[in-house]
Amino acid sequence: MSMDEQADILSDAERQALAAVSAPAVPASSVLVVDDNTGNREALCIYLRSRGWDCTEAGSVKQALAALTMRPSIGLIITDLRMQPEDGLSLIRQVRTSERAELPIIVVSGDTDVQEAVKAMHLGVLDVLLKPVDLDRLLELVRKELNP
């Protein structure tokens, strides 16, 4: 049976699974920044890129989940909690029940109340940082998790 004949008997999902298994492991070196505020998201990515980190942006929970599927190099999520239509807690819950459940997550939020912060910590986030963000602390957490 030729390779073309084999390719015809595989479904798209099987081809993707085979490619994932046979592809070399991608180092988890990229940061996914999730915030529905474009300015906040871009500023954080500009800062991370200036420090040598690859950064992917997502403006919603839906975009973030798509990015996680498409980019296996994402090794850390930084998310806001207050987003529309879905909030950051929803994103964290969905990640925790996915194949990327072990992904480290940092919450960065401007007006998080204590109850939200506690819920986020119960979902296993690394830290909850209030805006304006202590960039030294954020960079320390990123370095610790991604070990450049």
Structural notes for this entry:
The protein has a single domain (27-146), classed as Response regulator (Rossmann fold, 3-Layer(aba) Sandwich). Helix 4 runs parallel beside helix 5. It is α/β, with parallel strands linked by helices and 148 residues long. It has helices at 3-9, 12-22, 38-50, 61-70, 88-96, 114-122, 135-146, and strands at 30-34, 54-58, 74-79, 105-109, 127-130.
Which structural class matches the secondary elements?
alpha/beta
State the major sheet: 5 strands, parallel
- Spans of 5+ residues with little confidence (pLDDT < 50)? 1-6
The helix content is 40-55%
Q: How many domains? A: 1
Q: Gyration radius, to the nearest Å?
A: 17 Å
Tell me the overall shape: globular
* SSE arrangement, N to C: HHEHEHEHEHEH
Distance between the termini: 44 Å
The whole-number mean of residue pLDDT values reads: 87
The CATH class label is: Alpha Beta
CATH architecture, by name, is 3-Layer(aba) Sandwich
How many E-type strands?
5
Strand order of the largest sheet: 2-1-3-4-5
Strand content: 15-25%
CATH homologous superfamily identity: Response regulator
The CATH topology, please?
Rossmann fold
